[in-house]
Amino acid sequence: MVTRPDGGQGPYDWVETPDQVRIAALVDGRLLVVEQYHYLVGPLWQLPGGTVDPDDENPQAAARRELAEETGYLGGVWTSQGDLFPLPGTTSARVHLWRAEHLTPGPAAPEPAEADLRVHHVPLADAAREALHGRLRCAPSAALVLAVAASHLQS
Protein backbone atom coordinates (compact mmCIF):
# COMPACT_ATOMS: atom_id res chain seq x y z
CA MET A 1 0.00 0.00 0.00
CA VAL A 2 1.11 3.54 -0.70
CA THR A 3 -0.23 6.90 0.35
CA ARG A 4 -1.12 8.95 -2.72
CA PRO A 5 -0.68 12.74 -2.99
CA ASP A 6 -4.41 13.18 -2.19
CA GLY A 7 -3.93 11.34 1.13
CA GLY A 8 -5.76 8.20 0.01
CA GLN A 9 -4.17 4.79 0.12
CA GLY A 10 -4.01 2.19 -2.60
CA PRO A 11 -2.05 -0.74 -3.98
CA TYR A 12 1.12 -0.10 -5.92
CA ASP A 13 3.28 -2.59 -7.79
CA TRP A 14 6.98 -2.03 -8.37
CA VAL A 15 10.10 -3.96 -9.27
CA GLU A 16 13.25 -4.03 -7.15
CA THR A 17 16.29 -4.31 -9.36
CA PRO A 18 19.94 -3.24 -9.07
CA ASP A 19 21.26 -0.04 -10.60
CA GLN A 20 22.67 -0.21 -14.12
CA VAL A 21 25.46 1.50 -16.05
CA ARG A 22 25.84 2.62 -19.68
CA ILE A 23 29.08 3.78 -21.25
CA ALA A 24 29.69 6.11 -24.19
CA ALA A 25 33.11 4.73 -25.13
CA LEU A 26 34.81 6.79 -27.83
CA VAL A 27 37.55 5.12 -29.88
CA ASP A 28 39.07 7.19 -32.69
CA GLY A 29 35.98 9.42 -32.77
CA ARG A 30 33.57 6.49 -32.97
CA LEU A 31 31.23 5.12 -30.34
CA LEU A 32 31.34 1.49 -29.34
CA VAL A 33 27.78 0.21 -29.79
CA VAL A 34 26.79 -3.35 -28.96
CA GLU A 35 24.17 -5.39 -30.75
CA GLN A 36 22.60 -8.07 -28.61
CA TYR A 37 19.47 -10.16 -28.28
CA HIS A 38 17.42 -9.48 -25.14
CA TYR A 39 14.85 -12.06 -24.04
CA LEU A 40 12.11 -9.50 -23.36
CA VAL A 41 12.47 -7.22 -26.41
CA GLY A 42 14.51 -9.08 -29.01
CA PRO A 43 17.57 -7.71 -30.81
CA LEU A 44 18.71 -4.29 -29.65
CA TRP A 45 21.53 -1.86 -30.35
CA GLN A 46 22.73 -0.06 -27.25
CA LEU A 47 25.81 1.31 -25.55
CA PRO A 48 27.87 -1.16 -23.52
CA GLY A 49 26.71 -1.58 -19.94
CA GLY A 50 24.92 -3.73 -17.44
CA THR A 51 24.21 -4.31 -13.78
CA VAL A 52 25.99 -2.78 -10.81
CA ASP A 53 26.83 -6.00 -8.96
CA PRO A 54 27.09 -6.20 -5.14
CA ASP A 55 30.83 -6.93 -5.57
CA ASP A 56 31.39 -3.66 -7.44
CA GLU A 57 33.03 -0.94 -5.37
CA ASN A 58 30.92 1.76 -7.08
CA PRO A 59 29.08 2.46 -10.37
CA GLN A 60 32.31 3.46 -12.14
CA ALA A 61 33.88 0.11 -11.21
CA ALA A 62 30.81 -1.61 -12.67
CA ALA A 63 31.08 0.49 -15.84
CA ARG A 64 34.77 -0.37 -16.26
CA ARG A 65 34.02 -4.07 -15.71
CA GLU A 66 31.11 -4.11 -18.16
CA LEU A 67 33.06 -2.26 -20.87
CA ALA A 68 35.98 -4.68 -20.55
CA GLU A 69 33.70 -7.75 -20.58
CA GLU A 70 31.65 -6.65 -23.58
CA THR A 71 34.24 -4.89 -25.75
CA GLY A 72 37.70 -5.65 -24.32
CA TYR A 73 38.53 -1.95 -23.91
CA LEU A 74 40.30 -0.92 -20.70
CA GLY A 75 41.71 2.07 -18.83
CA GLY A 76 41.23 5.50 -20.30
CA VAL A 77 39.77 8.71 -18.98
CA TRP A 78 36.30 8.39 -17.46
CA THR A 79 33.80 11.20 -16.88
CA SER A 80 30.45 10.83 -15.15
CA GLN A 81 27.54 12.04 -17.23
CA GLY A 82 25.08 11.81 -14.33
CA ASP A 83 22.33 9.26 -13.81
CA LEU A 84 18.74 8.67 -14.88
CA PHE A 85 15.65 6.98 -13.50
CA PRO A 86 14.49 5.25 -16.72
CA LEU A 87 11.24 3.84 -15.24
CA PRO A 88 10.40 5.96 -12.17
CA GLY A 89 6.86 4.57 -11.92
CA THR A 90 8.11 0.99 -11.87
CA THR A 91 11.50 0.93 -10.11
CA SER A 92 13.83 3.17 -8.14
CA ALA A 93 16.84 1.74 -10.00
CA ARG A 94 19.10 4.30 -11.62
CA VAL A 95 21.24 4.08 -14.72
CA HIS A 96 24.65 5.68 -14.17
CA LEU A 97 26.00 7.21 -17.37
CA TRP A 98 29.72 7.38 -18.21
CA ARG A 99 31.88 8.73 -20.99
CA ALA A 100 35.19 6.91 -21.59
CA GLU A 101 38.00 8.01 -23.90
CA HIS A 102 41.67 7.17 -24.57
CA LEU A 103 40.96 3.48 -24.08
CA THR A 104 43.31 0.54 -24.64
CA PRO A 105 42.02 -2.46 -26.63
CA GLY A 106 42.14 -5.93 -25.15
CA PRO A 107 40.26 -9.23 -25.41
CA ALA A 108 36.54 -9.17 -24.63
CA ALA A 109 35.19 -11.67 -22.10
CA PRO A 110 31.41 -11.70 -22.51
CA GLU A 111 29.24 -13.67 -20.11
CA PRO A 112 27.53 -16.82 -21.49
CA ALA A 113 24.25 -14.92 -21.97
CA GLU A 114 26.17 -12.43 -24.14
CA ALA A 115 27.62 -14.98 -26.57
CA ASP A 116 25.72 -13.34 -29.45
CA LEU A 117 26.95 -9.82 -28.60
CA ARG A 118 28.56 -7.93 -31.49
CA VAL A 119 30.53 -4.71 -31.12
CA HIS A 120 30.21 -1.96 -33.75
CA HIS A 121 32.32 1.21 -34.11
CA VAL A 122 29.75 3.87 -35.09
CA PRO A 123 30.50 7.51 -35.95
CA LEU A 124 29.08 9.72 -33.20
CA ALA A 125 26.97 11.72 -35.68
CA ASP A 126 25.40 8.51 -37.02
CA ALA A 127 24.61 7.26 -33.51
CA ALA A 128 23.02 10.63 -32.65
CA ARG A 129 20.91 10.47 -35.81
CA GLU A 130 19.76 6.95 -34.89
CA ALA A 131 18.79 8.18 -31.40
CA LEU A 132 16.89 11.19 -32.79
CA HIS A 133 14.95 8.99 -35.21
CA GLY A 134 14.00 6.41 -32.58
CA ARG A 135 16.17 3.60 -33.91
CA LEU A 136 18.46 3.50 -30.85
CA ARG A 137 15.69 2.16 -28.62
CA CYS A 138 17.53 1.71 -25.31
CA ALA A 139 16.45 4.95 -23.61
CA PRO A 140 19.54 5.48 -21.40
CA SER A 141 21.77 4.77 -24.41
CA ALA A 142 19.88 7.28 -26.55
CA ALA A 143 20.05 9.94 -23.82
CA LEU A 144 23.78 9.41 -23.35
CA VAL A 145 24.52 9.45 -27.09
CA LEU A 146 22.64 12.74 -27.48
CA ALA A 147 24.40 14.27 -24.46
CA VAL A 148 27.84 13.31 -25.80
CA ALA A 149 26.95 14.55 -29.30
CA ALA A 150 25.74 17.87 -27.85
CA SER A 151 28.96 18.28 -25.87
CA HIS A 152 30.97 17.72 -29.08
CA LEU A 153 28.98 20.50 -30.78
CA GLN A 154 29.82 22.89 -27.95
CA SER A 155 33.56 22.22 -28.08
From TrEMBL:
Nudix hydrolase domain ranges (all copies): 16-144
Source domain of life: Bacteria
Gene3D superfamilies: Nucleoside Triphosphate Pyrophosphohydrolase
MF terms (GO), sorted A to Z: hydrolase activity
A Pfam entry, by short name: NUDIX
GO cellular component: cytosol
The protein's required cofactors: Mg(2+)
Parts of the chain that traverse the membrane: none
DNA-binding as UniProt keyword: no
InterPro entries per record: NUDIX_hydrolase-like_dom_sf, NUDIX_hydrolase_dom
GO biological process, one term: nucleoside phosphate metabolic process
Keyword entries, A-Z: Hydrolase
Protein name: Nudix hydrolase domain-containing protein
Native source species: Streptomyces flaveus
